[in-house]
């Protein structure tokens, strides 16, 4: 067993033999190219001058007054393309270019990773196919059009629930068939090794910046909260703080209509060990091991698995994972918008919603950082037409 491929008992490479060559090639290229000073300098320049990093750590004074604690927002929504996804997509696309690949493919749910990958492809002159479930294309029509405008070939996936799981499956199948020329840009800390590691490393810039910015503010974080679907924005901000046990880390899952109903995507709350998309992790499955249908207002969180590192962190109890419903999420989105003039993405609003549960139970005044992983422009139609109790996806 390749111990490097695992976080505790989670991870691995559960893929067809035909894909093992590409994974070995990727791991070798990551070590020999992405870790060089030259690659890092080129990527840092793009992150600064193209993406607009560092993203601010904003002291949300009105939210702080509302909750009675010091609330800081890590503003990934201010990145070029409107989310944290560009950090990883740009880095992987740059690696693909250095490896001599001519085409990149990606899967997307909310569309932010698809837009980020299409953006990187346009910048670096790479052919780009993006796989997206038909349901997600309908509810994220703005992002779907943005991808086409950027020159990507958007492929509608009509299987199953027509959401993120099916899009990921379709992308993996294509990648296996076109492995010589094609690079698969995975959008989250999921999939077979080395993807969870690579995406974590490329997203951990969020946590490194946050740590330095907290120091500049002269404060220390007591709590860091981030939403979790596959889990890239969360692991991105958590990673730098894992060794500091004084910082409480909280990942927020999509509970849909409620984790006690069949209509949710609360993987760690309700799932069990299984294999999905090339990795051993926690999976929402029935008693026969079949992957269960998931439901969330969020196109970016309705995934029936979770990154293997998150499964491990949950297993060792280093990170606490909590569910938040559609309704709680929308209420938090509206509150943040009205108090701070910031419209967060529906995904990020799950993390903001947890303030409502956490803050009243804190005995001492605390410093709380919430990762605002994306902006809500893409979600305006969903927010406008939101009805409590409606099933999305």
UniProtKB/TrEMBL annotation:
Post-translational modification N6-(pyridoxal phosphate)lysine, affected residues: 85
Pathway, per record: Amino-acid biosynthesis; L-tryptophan biosynthesis; L-tryptophan from chorismate: step 5/5
Keywords: Amino-acid biosynthesis, Aromatic amino acid biosynthesis, Lyase, Pyridoxal phosphate, Tryptophan biosynthesis
This protein's record includes keyword Lyase: yes
Enzyme Commission (EC) number: 4.2.1.20
Role, per record: The beta subunit is responsible for the synthesis of L-tryptophan from indole and L-serine.
Family: Belongs to the TrpB family.
Name recorded for this polypeptide: Tryptophan synthase beta chain
Originating species: Campylobacter majalis
């Amino acid at each position: 067993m390749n111990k490097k491929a695992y976080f505790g008992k989670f991870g691995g490479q559960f893929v067809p033999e035909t894909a093992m060559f590409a994974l070995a090639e990727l791991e070798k290229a990551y070590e020999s190219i992405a870790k060089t000073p030259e690659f890092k300098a080129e990527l840092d320049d793009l992150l600064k001058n193209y993406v607009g990093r560092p993203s601010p750590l904003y002291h949300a004074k009105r939210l702080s007054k509302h909750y009675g604690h010091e609330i800081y927002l890590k503003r990934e929504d201010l990145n070029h393309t409107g989310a944290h996804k560009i950090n990883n997509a740009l880095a992987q696309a740059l690696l693909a270019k250095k490896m001599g690949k001519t085409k990149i493919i990606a899967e997307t749910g909310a569309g932010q990773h698809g837009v980020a990958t299409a953006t990187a492809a346009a910048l670096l002159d790479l052919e780009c196919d993006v796989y997206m479930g038909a349901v997600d294309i309908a509810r994220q029509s703005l992002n779907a059009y943005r991808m086409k405008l950027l020159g990507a070939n958007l492929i509608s996936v009509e299987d199953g629930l027509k959401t993120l799981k099916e899009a990921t499956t379709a992308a993996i199948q294509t990648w296996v068939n076109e492995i010589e020329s094609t690079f698969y840009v995975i959008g989250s800390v999921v999939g077979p090794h080395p993807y969870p590691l690579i995406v974590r490393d490329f997203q951990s810039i969020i946590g490194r910046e946050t740590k330095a910015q907290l120091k500049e503010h002269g404060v220390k974080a007591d709590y860091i909260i981030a939403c979790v679907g596959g889990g890239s924005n969360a692991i991105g901000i958590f990673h730098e703080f894992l060794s500091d046990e004084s910082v409480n880390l909280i990942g927020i899952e999509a509970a849909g209509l409620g984790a006690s109903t069949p209509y949710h995507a609360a993987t760690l709350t309700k799932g069990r060990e299984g294999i999905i998309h090339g990795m051993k992790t926690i999976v929402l499955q029935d008693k026969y091991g079949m992957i269960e249908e998931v439901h969330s207002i969020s196109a970016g969180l309705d995934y029936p698995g979770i990154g293997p590192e998150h499964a491990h962190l949950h297993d060792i109890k280093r990170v606490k994972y909590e569910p938040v419903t559609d309704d709680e999420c929308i209420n938090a989105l509206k509150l943040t918008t009205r108090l701070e003039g910031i419209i967060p993405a529906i995904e990020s609003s799950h993390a903001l919603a947890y303030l409502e549960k956490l803050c009243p139970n804190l005995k001492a005044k605390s410093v709380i950082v919430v990762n605002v992983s994306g902006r809500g422009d893409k979600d305006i139609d969903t927010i406008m037409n939101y009805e409590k109790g409606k099933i999305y996806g």
